[in-house]
Amino acid sequence: MKAEKAFTVIGRKLEKEYKGLGFKYFKTIQFLRKRTKKFDYYILFSPFLENLPDTFTGLWVTVMIQDRILLKKNIYANSEIVRMDLWKMGGQYNIANETLINDAFIDLKNKIEDYLLPYIKRLE
Rounded distance, CA 78 to CA 32, Å? Predict the structure, then answer.
């Protein structure tokens, strides 16, 4: 599977899992976002290393929360409240095929529930 398709597959799986919380996947930019009046919550995808279709498609994931009020005031430097690079916590994934995507999905789901959802509950 090519990288773009693999990213879309895992992005759509995460969107389906967290749609009830308001997350939507954006294919062109490769991230999920939940937007409220005060905050933007992101699950960002980044490729890493050289991608080889059907063999290796590297994925790094970062979760981030931005303060929308500060962004509206053009205070970009202080708008980022939380940024966690999950790839620094063992979240480096090979998503080259369905089996690997499913394995990555399970691990990502656990990390999102452990690290991002508590922030959402606290801020909302």
Answer: 22
